[in-house]
From TrEMBL:
The keyword Repeat applies. This is K Homology domain-containing protein. Keywords: Repeat, RNA-binding. It comes from the Eukaryota. The lineage of its organism: Eukaryota, Metazoa, Ecdysozoa, Arthropoda, Chelicerata. Residues 17-85, 89-158 form the K Homology domain. InterPro entries: KH_dom, KH_dom_type_1, KH_dom_type_1_sf. GO terms for biological process: regulation of gene expression.
Length: 160
């Protein structure tokens, strides 16, 4: 009887210090939740003491399980749901610019592209590798910002 009571007490103690919750995240965003080389899940484990269980790709399940201290689980849940929401609202547009005009968009010492990045700080602009014979400049971020950046960069190209 004493063992049973001690065991029940230990179970209650564990339950009060540990929590688990399941959140739904579209499987296409799972790799972003995991992060490069597991960076996001490792950070949550280290900073919040939360273990993140992401289903294998072949399962195609949206259920992501979080386990750890109640406060950490709550914070991790908020962070991961915000990340998923941002990813859902993210778009990518291609701006076709002849390779010879890439320098115009980048500017001397990168000044022009730095100005674009300051103006549209939610947007990521990626140029193809020099000499790749690729004319596509990728603009990625929230839809409204991407559209505004696209218009701005198109206008710069038309002016030159």
């Amino acid at each position: 009887e004493a063992v049973k009571t001690a065991l029940e007490e230990k179970v209650r103690e564990i339950q009060s210090t540990m929590d688990s919750v399941e959140i739904k995240v579209d499987p296409q965003y799972h790799r972003h939740i995991i992060g490069k080389a597991g960076s996001n899940v490792n950070r949550l484990k280290q900073d919040l003491g939360v273990t993140v269980h992401v289903p294998a790709d072949e399962e195609r399940s949206p259920v992501v399980r979080l386990e750890g201290p109640p406060e950490g689980v709550a914070q991790a849940k908020t962070e991961l749901l915000e990340m998923a929401h941002k990813l859902q609202n993210e778009v990518m547009r291609e701006l076709c610019v002849e390779q010879r005009f890439h320098r115009t968009l980048i500017g001397a010492k990168g000044e022009a592209i730095q100005d674009v990045r300051r103006r549209f700080n939610q947007v990521n602009v990626t140029f193809p590798e020099p000499g790749s014979r690729n004319d596509k400049v990728l603009i990625r971020g929230p839809k409204e910002d991407v559209d505004a950046c696209y218009r701005h960069m198109s206008q710069i190209c038309q002016e030159h």
